[in-house]
Amino acid sequence: MPNIFFKIQGSEKKIKRLPLPPGPSPWPIVGNLPEMWRKKPAFNWIHDVMKELNTDIACIRLGNVHVIPVTSPEIALEVLKDNDSVFATRPLTMGTEYSSRGFLSIAVVPLGQQWKKMRKVVASHVLCSARLHSLLFKRREEADNLVRFVYSQCCKSGSGSVVNVRHAARQYCGNVMRNMMFNRGYFGEGNEDGGPGFEEEEHVESLFIVLQYLYAFTLSDYLPWMRVFDLEGREKLISNAIRTVSKYHDPIIEERIQQRRHHRGNYKKESDDHQDLLDVLISAKDESARPSLSVDEIKAQCMVRYLVYLIRTFVCFNHLIHALEFD
């Protein structure tokens, strides 16, 4: 086992490197990427490797990155609780780079100055209890719309009809965040029955594509020089999905910024009663009374807030549906 040396206060101290957990023998340069590429899905191959090694913690080298999977609750608790500060940062992936416009947001950004800046703004202005309480009526409004939409679907025929609960739940997630973020129920005109129109369905579908590949196993995340080839086609999928979402977000954000910061058009400026989360992000000020966020940071935060809310709300719906099935 090789030794490493470093200087502490002018003196050299010899430190023995601790052994890594067991794992499959890696290839030069690429590590275990060939095996993981051939035996998809990746998590099944990892579980099989750990079962063969009879271990609860393993070390798998992917390119120059050591991936440490853990299956033991005790070890996981040690990682996530006892040593949480060591593992507080987030991995760099193609999906997180695209969704955060080059790591400008908070939820998917690695620990650093940008993360600290965004955390301060979001914690002070967006996630405070007063702000969430002020937007409660919007969440209730969309809950009423969901019930109305499901009821209208059931009444389409005299004997009732089948309702796609998954579709309704996904659209509800998008509607709530759209109302809280942009103060509007639809990007287009919607449907006569209160359901989503083409614009809303395209928007939500694109968001779920981004979520699907946000942290998905991608070769280019471990071998950056392979990104230009896009062997799995995921970069094209994610970039197209982000482009679709931006098609609906960016015009609203840019127009609101012009109205809010320069008081142009017919925009009515409010003192403290913000209409939605977009107004909150635009009006956030730093210590010098200047805007805290740039235009790109606002766009990135709107995107990531959408993704975070979709995850939380859709997970709750899934738990509810499973509970109803078991009942």
TrEMBL record:
One of its GO terms (molecular function) is oxidoreductase activity, acting on paired donors, with incorporation or reduction of molecular oxygen. Pfam families: p450. PANTHER family: CYTOCHROME P450, CYTOCHROME P450 FAMILY 1. This is Cytochrome P450. The lineage of its organism: Eukaryota, Viridiplantae, Streptophyta, Embryophyta, Tracheophyta.
